[in-house]
């Protein structure tokens, strides 16, 4: 199971990097087109926006998995043993719930905007921009479940000496 999750994380990281490269390329192209007469790149802004959004959401999921996300460690640093495990479990359950909301609401929003198109690129559906929500929501859930299992296993392994 760990190999599958590692593969998902690796794929998500690679895709985030690709979206970053596309974003940078589009921004450079857009800026350059302002100074080169006769070249109009109407689509660059839209693709840059979509790429940036997808990059940020994929990056957020990877950050969650690597436990590098924003957190208040005041309470985590003071707790040990079972109280720490309970707090860690509560945190992971909240993250699972948040992922669930991203999946369900993101799916509904994607469906709602699927028929809408972008003015600068009529062939591009707005639903694609919202599709990132259910996709990253699924990975939020996977990574939070992985972390929850790791916390429980760490507690069992270290018993009373368990710490974050």
UniProtKB/TrEMBL annotation:
It comes from Sediminibacillus albus. InterPro entries: DctQ, TRAP_DctQ. One of its GO terms (biological process) is C4-dicarboxylate transport. The chain crosses the membrane at residues 12-33, 39-64, 84-103, 128-149. Signal peptide: none annotated. It comes from the Bacteria. Keywords: Cell inner membrane, Cell membrane, Membrane, Transmembrane, Transmembrane helix, Transport. This is TRAP-type C4-dicarboxylate transport system, small permease component. It is found in: Cell inner membrane.
